[in-house]
Specification:
The complex is a heterodimer of chains A (396) and B (99). Chain A is α/β, with parallel strands linked by helices and 396 residues long. Chain A folds into two domains: 245 residues, Rossmann fold, CATH 3.40.50; 135 residues, Rossmann fold, CATH 3.40.50.920. Helices cover 41% and strands 18% of the residues of chain A. In chain A, the strands form three sheets. In chain A, strands 3-2-4-5-7-6-12 form a seven-stranded mixed beta sheet, sandwiched between helices. In chain A, α11 links the parallel β13 and β14. Chain A is globular. A two-stranded antiparallel ribbon of chain B has the order 1-2. Chain B has 99 residues and is low in regular secondary structure. The termini of chain B are far apart. Chain B contains two helices and two strands, in the order βααβ. In chain B, 9% of the residues lie in helices and 10% in strands. The chains are: A alpha/beta (396), B little secondary structure (99).
Chain lengths: 396, 99
């Protein structure tokens, strides 16, 4: 039986990092993830971890220091948000292409501008094709659990890719909720030690990391990364199975909430799933067959599994908490509809961009989405698939 | 480490392009970037020793026994011309690569 606690999402992430006790943490403060390195530096000062804390001068340096540490053979972690991730962007690609399993806690926030420090997913969506595994977390418990599973996935020899654990800024990061922690010794045993096969500080095998990769090589290295991302699917499920044995908490690529017999459903990520569950319960009481698919593993994208899970619906809505500004719908919408198409399933699907810049996401708005879906299911009429909710518009 | 070249399939390549040996920069012949080349006129050379320290690469070999410079190592010379500018005796002449 685990330890009952009450922690904020940031505290949960920092507590997981403390229990993992990585060799190096290099981080730079940025709202709303600031507390993670802040708590962690306290652990370092108190001697409750053995980690070296590198107080860098920017996020570019934070990721660079993590890359150096991982290449040397150490286990490195960091945390950031929004523009911090933007500043890391160059090194984000270096980390994944050098196949360094760095673990990053991303507390999702709108990327400026105009300047905004509140939650949406524009930071994560900006790096969705950067070769990082991306796990999303509904609440503090999931942010904690995903972090405990992170290294087992990232460091697996068939994967060797960096991984980010996402949680919603403020909504999750600053809300204190009940949580069940795993005992320190069990975490230590579960996560295990990191013994890379090749590393810079191995005096018996001098190596070169990150050499020039000209026309005859880069293509193959990118294909290797793509293969590793594919391999990660199996590993993610294996690690989740072990995690369930330890904690009783079950994780997959996604959570199906009253989905199997649903006629209309929403697909979304992070904290909005909590609000949606509340709405689904209310609608079910009214006899409406509403369901939810909460995506946990956004990268690798579980193309076939997600298509199959949604194939029986009469209508569905995909909620994007980031505007793609492409005149063609949000990133999650594009991925889900593409998954349906290649699997030859046709379900009427609409996209809602919502919650931008921390705009409150209310239960009545989500209920409105289900009402729209019921109408689409009845008439088959979609009209405009690219929609918003929570956006102020002139009355027509 | 097994040799990796432009015919190696992706399955046999190292992740991230890492090279599991030391001193491998030597195998990368950067001299083929050159468009002009320095020519060593040994009869004008006084062995003053000003040229080889200014070479940004390692293209002017110095004999360890006699401590005298030898002809250019064109495998690594990029034709920057710093040595020719430095030589007080006109013993290094820059010529077009094709000449």
């Amino acid at each position: 039986m685990g330890i009952r606690e009450r922690l904020s999402g940031n505290e949960a992430a920092a507590t997981a990092m403390k229990q993992i006790n990585p060799d190096v943490v290099a981080a730079y403060p940025i709202t709303p993830s600031t507390e993670i390195p802040q708590y962690f530096s306290t652990f370092v000062a108190n001697g409750s971890v053995d980690s070296d804390f590198v107080a860098v001068e920017s996020e570019h340096s934070a990721m660079s220091a993590c890359i150096g540490a991982e290449a040397a053979g150490a286990r490195a972690m960091t945390a950031t948000s929004a523009n911090g991730l933007s500043l890391m962007w160059e090194m984000i690609y270096i980390a994944s292409s050098l196949r360094l399993p760095i673990v990053l806690s991303l507390v999702n926030r709108a990327v400026s501008g105009p300047l905004n420090i509140h939650n949406d997913h524009s930071d994560a969506m900006g790096v969705r094709d950067a070769g990082w595994i991306m796990l999303f977390s509904e609440n503090n418990q999931e942010a904690y659990d995903n972090t405990l599973m992170a290294h087992r996935i990232a460091e697996h020899k068939d994967v060797m890719l960096p991984l980010m654990v996402c949680q919603d800024g403020f909504i999750t990061s600053h809300s204190i909720e009940n949580i069940e922690l795993v005992e320190d010794d069990k975490v230590k045993e579960f996560v295990g030690e990191y013994h890379p096969e090749h590393y810079l500080l191995n005096r018996d095998e001098p190596i070169a990391v990150g050499p020039l990769d000209v026309q005859s090589y880069l293509f193959e290295h990118k294909a290797q990364q793509a293969q590793a991302m594919e391999n990660a699917k199996k590993v993610i499920l294996e690690v989740a199975e072990d995690f369930e044995k330890m904690t009783g908490r079950k994780y997959g690529f996604f959570e199906k909430y009253k989905l199997d017999d649903a006629e209309v459903a929403i697909v979304c990520m992070n904290s909005t799933a909590g609000t949606t569950k509340f709405v689904v319960d209310n609608l079910r009481e009214q006899g409406i067959k509403a369901g939810l698919l909460k995506l946990r593993v956004f990268r690798p994208f579980p193309v076939n599994e997600i298509a199959k899970a949604l194939s029986h619906l009469k209508a569905m809505a995909i909620l994007d908490k980031a505007s793609s500004l492409n005149a063609a719908g949000g990133a999650l919408y594009e991925d889900v509809t593409s998954a349906m198409y290649v699997n030859n399933f046709h379900v009427p699907a609409v996209n809602y961009v919502y919650g931008i810049g921390g705009r409150d996401t209310r239960a009545d708005e989500i209920e409105g989405v289900y009402k729209d879906l019921l109408e689409i299911a009845k008439t088959g009429n979609i009209d405009n698939p690219y929609r918003y909710f929570g956006l102020r518009r002139e009355a027509k | 480490m097994t040799e990796i070249n432009a015919n190696t399939p992706m399955e046999k390549m190292t992740p991230g392009g890492d090279i599991y040996t030391a001193g491998n920069a030597r195998e990368f012949k950067t001299g083929d970037w050159r468009s002009v080349k320095p020519v060593f006129l040994s009869e004008k050379c006084k062995q003053c020793g000003l040229c080889f320290p200014v070479c940004p690469d390692d293209a002017i070999p110095v004999n360890k026994e006699t401590l005298q410079r030898e002809d250019f190592n064109y495998d690594y010379c990029k034709g920057c011309g710093v040595c020719a500018k430095t030589c007080p005796f006109g013993a290094i002449e820059m010529r077009k690569e094709d000449d």
